[in-house]
Amino acid sequence: MLEDKKNQLPKSAAFTLTLADSCFIQTQRLCQWCGQAPSLEEEMAISNIALDTLSYARYLYQETINRVELPETPDTLVFKRDARQYRNFRFIELPQYSFADLVLRNLIFSSFLQNMFQRNKIADEKFYSFSEKAIVEIQYHVDHAHNWIRRLSVGTAIAKQRIQSALDIVWPHTRELSLFSEEFDVTDHLQSQTRCSWHHRATDLLREVGLALPSLPDRYRCGYDGYHTEHLGRLISETQSVYREFPGGIW
Amino acid sequence: MLEDKKNQLPKSAAFTLTLADSCFIQTQRLCQWCGQAPSLEEEMAISNIALDTLSYARYLYQETINRVELPETPDTLVFKRDARQYRNFRFIELPQYSFADLVLRNLIFSSFLQNMFQRNKIADEKFYSFSEKAIVEIQYHVDHAHNWIRRLSVGTAIAKQRIQSALDIVWPHTRELSLFSEEFDVTDHLQSQTRCSWHHRATDLLREVGLALPSLPDRYRCGYDGYHTEHLGRLISETQSVYREFPGGIW
Amino acid sequence: QSKEDVFDAYVAHGGRVEASHWMPDAYRKTLIRQVSQHAHSEIVGMLPEANWLISAPSLERKQILIAKVQDEAGHGLYLYSVAETLGAKRKDLTDALIDGRAKYSSVFNYPSLTWADVGTIGWLVDGAAILNQVTLCETSYGPYARAMIRICREESFHQRQGFEALYRMFAEGTDAQRSMIQDSINRWWAPSLMMFGPPDTDSNNSAQSMKWGIKIKTNDTLRQEFVNTIAKQSRIIGVTIPDPSLKWCPVSGNYVFTQPDWEEFYEVIGGRGMCNQDRLENIRRARDDNEWVMDAAEKYEAQQGNYAAGDPNHA
Amino acid sequence: QSKEDVFDAYVAHGGRVEASHWMPDAYRKTLIRQVSQHAHSEIVGMLPEANWLISAPSLERKQILIAKVQDEAGHGLYLYSVAETLGAKRKDLTDALIDGRAKYSSVFNYPSLTWADVGTIGWLVDGAAILNQVTLCETSYGPYARAMIRICREESFHQRQGFEALYRMFAEGTDAQRSMIQDSINRWWAPSLMMFGPPDTDSNNSAQSMKWGIKIKTNDTLRQEFVNTIAKQSRIIGVTIPDPSLKWCPVSGNYVFTQPDWEEFYEVIGGRGMCNQDRLENIRRARDDNEWVMDAAEKYEAQQGNYAAGDPNHA
């Protein structure tokens, strides 16, 4: 079982596991919008993104398993680990109280993920065809976020205020993404293409629409090191409730 | 295990089990207010009521077990039955979205429960001392609900509108309480004291403060017959999450 | 010969009516009512399934369920746009739903209480829906008929997935899973029978609708087809249909079955079912909580000068 | 001799200051700050425990936990009323908390991630709080000292309950439970050490506060007492304190231990801990969502003519 500390995993597996868990938790947060979205068009857009992130999660869990050669499956990783063993980025697990939260998380996560896959495409042959396809799909997620952030920031004063509040909460957590990039040595691979790094594109947009960027903390306890909030536990217990209620079940 | 249909239970045990489950689920709904109440005074009042309803639940579960002579404990009844086996009144399981929901549920459930204990005090010797104590405590719950319903209905127009909307949702469910009284033959024992029946007192108050009482449905599928909403499942899975995660655990 | 007579004759000979054609007011109104009820049913029908998205017990089942619920949103969208070709406004239709003025399939006022319900809804509820919808692929209003063709294709897929999920759990799963499935069938059987509407003897509007080709087969005919199909499939899965009187009648070539409780049906249709309140509350909450979002989108489009009337999503 | 000198001498000789007495502005301000921080800590401290109310794994544990959280609300209420005797307004204090202007114990900016944390918070966090509070039973401001006496009695009870819960789970429970407990201790040890504040060498305000009898023992003294007590109790439970350097020093009669990461402490105090945002968001949400309730109560009391200034709860 992968219940050991992240640093007992080979680095390449820790890398994929963090991305897998993040994609999975993002899927769950998106699923909570089902029946709650602002319009039918958004119901469809959100579930589209959720289907994509779920498919990345499945692929990345399998990659993790291949790298450590353990008798796990993507399902056992999802349904048998407790919340303490999840390695997702912390901002992904925070509840999305409003649509502003949704589009900002989506902006940050999607553009970051796109960069990670770009890096992988270069760095890791096995990833090539998966990454190539995913990068194209994710562009749709990024565009969706961009469009809505623009609409909300420019549309009305109240919407601008709401998206600014949502940004104040989520932005400091992006510190984790730069720490992750450093730790997993991703920065180098992207240096040649710095101008298209997720961070540049995101900050360009946010500034352009007149939002103020909060400062980043110096130190940050990372979700990928297992530091989570109380929200993750509740989400994981709902995630696993049916699975745990029927031991030995076949689905 | 009590997983069988209610009508396979002796009637006296079905009676106490419905009250026990209702007290327990009410406790859970009240606990969800912790840290979310309108004031510190209300934090204390709500947890007071929750402590009382929890103690009734424990007593009534034990009574149920005594009546069927099964090797259960109050804990196994709570933590090992699935949501389909719970017998609580349906309105108790509905989420409390606002403080108006809380005070109305509290009004209806507390005054009904007080009547049930009054009936029991008369009808069942074993219940005498428990009922006598509980009746006095519940008067505090009823008063708390009365005071708030008055404040909200008279205080501001917006509060009145919110409490009326909350009433529109919960009131039709009181049909279940009269069906329960009929099925368990409780009406007779209270006929001599009709004027103090929960229903009279509640409707008197609601009319006095100017709220409109919605009509009751002719037919009603009862929570005590196992007809629940989707909300109960989620609540029960959160209730049992720690218990199920540690099989054989000692608490 | 009046315009009406010409229209009726055209339709009677299998003619397709298009949005640009002249049509009787009553035909238009009946269609708007039927199509929007159908759209509402897709939207409300997402909710009992959405209840299990988070706790779907495998990644594959989660994926299937997200895709299914997404299809339903798509069907709703498609059907609202059919209603719009008839002059209705989506916002008005949604408001009527939230205010309790519009109807939708009674079956979605029952709760989905266990994971097995996801399979059962696919098998029984989608199964019943398809029987109705397949006939509507031949309906006289062109945009509706074309919508139905696409929708039926996806619904059949959903029904097969539901059947397959139950079959697999029942055949390979644990006793606890089998109990869960049987309990689920017990709860959904009668509501599924009700989906075809009241017995023909009590059904209003039917005659005119059939004449117009808006309705093709009667409620009882469809219900009988449903029972015949499901009775056979239930034996493959291994579950028991909760009707002790159910049996094959070689003379009529049909299964004999017990009618559901029609009084309950009228209660549910009248807004007093187990989940009516919950369903509308959910949709109202989604609308109200997101009003600021749609408002900002609308204002933004207006500022950009590319705002068309109506929904900002259309801009 | 100035008023200040008389006051200082009075306090230095163990005199009790009451609300009606004259006191230096700085004394008043320092006390308001300290008492309200203490009150805020009780309120914020409810949240990590409230997180486990619904899923407490036995009815008895649920009852104990509800009662404990209720006590904390009571302590908060009591302490705000002490601050009110000094002229502060509860609403202003709460607003300062929500706006991030006021502080509260850094320890509550760590998350409670497992059920074991409920026991650990009782054992370590309440344990640390009591050491500080017991000395404050002797503090110079009368209303504060009397509040402390009552609060200490209840806190000791909570600490024993926490210890007992861990002891029982560790002794009689499963291996999985023991791992959960050890993981919990590993996470809460350093934050508990930080509860006494920075090392004496870095602690501001301490000298004046000690002179005034608002503070009785230094941070490091209290921290050492805490380590000595907990190190012994940990052996009774069977858990390991996550400090490889921890050992008994017979010469000093103390346990030697490693200082926590003080940089992290300053981050948390500066609002950048793991849960700072979450905690304040929670309290802000409770205030905003219930604004209409408090507003209606206030208007009602005014109409009834029995409205006193301030909080409707006081009427």
SSE blueprint and pairings:
The complex is a heterotetramer, with two copies of chain A (251 residues) and two copies of chain C (315 residues).
Chain A: H1 11-31, H2 40-68, H3 74-80, H4 90-93, H5 99-123, H6 128-155, H7 157-170, H8 175-183, H9 187-191, H10 198-208, H11 230-239, H12 241-245
Helix pairs in contact in A: 1-2, 2-6, 5-6, 5-7, 5-10, 6-7
Chain C: H1 3-12, H2 25-50, H3 59-85, H4 90-98, H5 116-136, H6 142-172, H7 175-194, H8 206-211, H9 219-237, E1 247-249, E2 254-256, H10 262-272, H11 276-289, H12 291-303
Helix pairs in contact in C: 2-3, 3-6, 5-6, 5-7, 5-9, 6-7
What distance separates the N and C termini of chain C? Answer: 44 Å
Indicate the overall shape of chain A.
globular
- Can you summarize the main beta sheet of chain C? 2 strands, antiparallel
* Helicity range of chain A: 55-70%
Strand content of chain C: under 5%
- Supply the CATH superfamily name of chain A: Ferritin, core subunit, four-helix bundle
Gross morphology of chain C: globular
CATH topology of chain A: Ferritin
Arithmetic mean pLDDT of chain C: 93
The helix/strand class of chain A is mainly alpha
Element-by-element helix/strand order of chain A: HHHHHHHHHHHH
Q: Count up the helices of chain C.
A: 12
Contiguous runs where pLDDT drops below 50 for at least 5 residues of chain C: none
Question: How many strands appear in the DSSP assignment of chain C?
Answer: 2
- State the distance separating the first and last CA atoms of chain A: 21 Å
The largest interface is: A-C, 52 and 54 residues
Query: Helix content range of the residues of chain C, please?
Result: 55-70%
Rg value of chain C: 21 Å
Pfam family, one (chains A, B): PaaA_PaaC
GO biological process, one term (chains A, B): phenylacetate catabolic process
Protein name (chains A, B): 1,2-phenylacetyl-CoA epoxidase, subunit C
